Amino acid sequence: NACGGKLWKGGSQPPLSLALYTADDGAAQDFAVLDQGWNVGDLGWRTGLYTVELHEAKILHWNGKRKPWAPNGNYHDLWQPHRLRFDALLHAFV
């Protein structure tokens, strides 16, 4: 990030989480503490993570080489319901 790592660490994931996060009524307006299961990463290289937590996560991040649209990708079943929404964009990668 452009602030020398003093505002956040973790590349684009923290601002993405905040962009998609909706605070509950009555929640603090100046900060948000997100449960670690809210944004699940490493799905492109870690296996054995298929749990209830993956189905409850708000953001699934396939960092790593095994993207879900690739023939050798991980967690195809989690990606498939969303694929139809983005099918036209993925033709160049499949």
Describe the structure.
With 94 residues, the protein is mostly helical. 30% of the residues lie in helices and 4% in strands. The chain has 3 helices and 2 strands; from the N terminus they run αβαβα. A two-stranded parallel sheet has the order 1-2. The mean pLDDT is 78.
Structure keywords:
94 residues; mainly alpha; two-stranded parallel ribbon; 3 helices; 4% strand
Rg over CA atoms: 15 Å
Shape: globular
Roughly what fraction of the amino acids lie in strands? under 5%
Helical amount among residues, as a percent range?
Answer: 25-40%
Q: Could you tell me the mean pLDDT?
A: 78
Structural class: mainly alpha
Q: Could you give the count of β-strands? A: 2
- Spans where pLDDT lies below 50 across 5 or more residues: none
Chain-wise SSE layout:
Layout: H1 13-20, E1 39-40, H2 52-56, E2 59-60, H3 76-90
Parallel strand pairs: 1-2
